[in-house]
Amino acid sequence: MKPFNERWSVIREKPEVLQPVILRLINALDELDSLLEGALVIHCLYDADRQNGSYHLRGMAADVHIQGLHPIDQFLYVERQQLFTGIGIYGSDVWHNPGLHVDLRDGRAARWAFKSGKDGKREEVALDKIYVSYLLSIMP
User: Fold this and answer.
1) Is 38 within the bounds of a domain?
2) In a domain, 122, yes or no
């Protein structure tokens, strides 16, 4: 698996709280990376700077991308593997490395997309034909 970013060290500060969740997440990411033969790039796991309620803050989420695949293809591939309950997609208008947010939320599956809003901040939108057409227009 690819090395985690510099924020990985923050997890070591609270191992008793985060260890069980992080291990589940790492196992799921490791399985995905094995299926992809090492093409998974992990950008962020635990992030102390996120807002309350964030799955990153709770050690249950990662921001990733798959080398060589369009974000739509990344989303479809990860969804087929059924390793994560939450999957969000980011295009180049929102993130410097277009890819995915994946998480291990409890309960039913959640799917969404992010795009740049009118004020330049990202906004959550439905993952539908309109978004897919938009994403294809900015990232052919």
Assistant:
1) yes
2) yes
Question: Distance between CA 60 and CA 104 in Å, rounded?
Answer: 6
* Cα–Cα distance for residue pair 13/23, rounded to 1 Å: 15
pTM, whole model, 2 decimals? Answer: 0.79
Mean pLDDT of 94-115: 87
| Residue 112 β-bridge partners | 88
Residue 56 CB-half CA count within 13 A = 18
Any domain includes 2: no
CATH code, 28: 3.30.1380
Number of structural domains the chain divides into:
1
Say how far apart CA 140 and CA 125 lie, in whole Å: 20
**CA distance to 8, 32, 37, 41, 128, per residue, from 136 (Å):** 33, 25, 26, 22, 12
131 near 125, Cβ under 8 Å? Answer: yes
- Domain around 55: 8-138
With bands split at pLDDT 50, 70 and 90, how would you rate the model's confidence at 113? Answer: confident
